[in-house]
Amino acid sequence: MSIVTIHPENDPSRVEIIRNHPDIAERLWEIGVLFERWTTDSILESDADAESIIAAYRSSIDRLINRYEFRTVDVISVNPDHPERVSLRNKFLSEHTHDEFEVRFFVEGRGLFYLHSQNKVYVVLCEQGDLISVPDLTRHWFDMGEYPTLKVIRLFTTPEGWVARFTGDPIAENFPKFEDFMARYA
Question: Tell me: the pLDDT tens digits for 34-91?
């Protein structure tokens, strides 16, 4: 079940919790973040290749391509046995921005987006079926957990994808990491 917690940026202990998907989508839209649920009639095996996954969600992907002129679509998969799981996790645990918006659809698994906007931190637990689109230049970070399990469709507007621009703000250190968040709120 998707969850959003909202905290004052300077007090992670104060929290508002939202568990209802329409309410989550509405609150995130207030800060410009698109949050949707996608479904497919296709049956995907756990070892489905990227081409099959993209084909299964083609109508939803095409809707976003037509709306935002995406040029690149791919699939990334990380599991607990992935040889680079630690470095992949650590890569995005610090607050950063991108020059283009970041769009992720969770085919399998889960991960946490932390969105730093309007003097608040919105912690978004994305799970299978969730699409999140983080606007360009939005300060955020991401945690896939110590033993990640996720398969995600990514969409890009520029052929080279996006580059993280780290803010240098240590705010991420003040908020619960994936495992602590799950223990407290999920």
Answer: 999 999 988 898 889 999 999 999 999 999 999 888 888 999 999 999 999 999 999 9
| Cα 31–Cα 36–Cα 38 angle in degrees, nearest 5 | 165
Q: Which helix (H) or strand (E) holds 6?
A: strand 3-8
Burial of 120: CB neighbours in 10 Å, binned 0-12, 13-18, 19+: middle
**Domains in the chain: how many in total?**
1
Torsion (CA) 136, 75, 89, 45 in degrees, nearest 10: 140
**Residue range of the domain that includes 91:** 3-185
CATH number at residue 120: 2.60.120.10
* Distance of alpha carbon 90 from alpha carbon 86, whole angstroms: 6
A 10 A CB-CB count for 160 gives 9
| Ramachandran angles phi, psi of 153, nearest 5° | -85, 130
pTM of the model: 0.95
